[in-house]
Amino acid sequence: MASLNLGYWVQSYSMPNQVSSISKSFPLPRSLPFNPLTTQSSSTLKKVNFSSLPSITSVLTKEDIVKEEEQDPQKSSFDFNSYMLQKASAVNQALESAVSLRDPVKIHEAMRYSLLAGGKRVRPVLCLAACALVGGRESMAMPAACAVEMIHTMSLIHDDLPCMDNDDLRRGKPTNHKVFGEDIAVLAGDALLAFAFEHIAVSTVGVPPSRIVRAIGELAKAIGGEGLVAGQVVDIISEGLTDVGLDHLEFIHVHKTA
């Protein structure tokens, strides 16, 4: 139960206003519109004077390109790494606040142990980015982003159990059941799953209730018998098979992987 496919449901949550029009995409041409070797006859091709070509020392290095971009901010590209670090930090703070250490202490320790163990936070950052893309505020999507990470963490805790993959390490640390025992690990995953939906329902602000309900429905569908769980089941029953086709593998990939 490795991960969660969010491509569909997050769109319904994060969109604050109906989009009035949808851009049409057109297929790329099968060949380039201009090919100098086919559009010119051999008689019109000129012999290349290699002495006129620039020497290898005149080729721009990576450092030159970086300096040029720094001089012209308009040419600078989007800093993906900085964006990920910034948003991941915001998600970590929100998760720390959402899942506080309270009674019963043991179960909340187990929940926090795996939830706050690190990771790139790709899924919650994707949720925040989708919200921003359609004009929403980060605060509108943060509860959903945290919920997505809680569910992802649940899937990792359960996936590491002896009855599944029986892993001893996760992100360089002992897995949840190695630290707290199998019973507490199962319950920690269950608690994270339940709290994920509670967190969206209770903590989301600035979003119409109808859209919150729709988001909860889409998220539940994405992780249930038609989503994450379906992919995990097919993965389990496929072990040892020798005639697994591409469609079979794609089903597992689409349902288990974000």
TrEMBL record:
**PROSITE patterns (UniProt xref):** POLYPRENYL_SYNTHASE_1
> What does the entry list under GO cellular component?
cytoplasm
UniProt-listed GO biological process terms? isoprenoid biosynthetic process
| The entry's keywords | Magnesium, Metal-binding, Transferase
Cite a single GO MF annotation: metal ion binding
Transmembrane domains' residue ranges: none
Q: Which Pfam families match?
A: polyprenyl_synt
For activity, the cofactor(s) needed are: Mg(2+)
The family assignment reads:
Belongs to the FPP/GGPP synthase family.
Q: Supply the name of the protein.
A: Geranylgeranyl pyrophosphate synthase
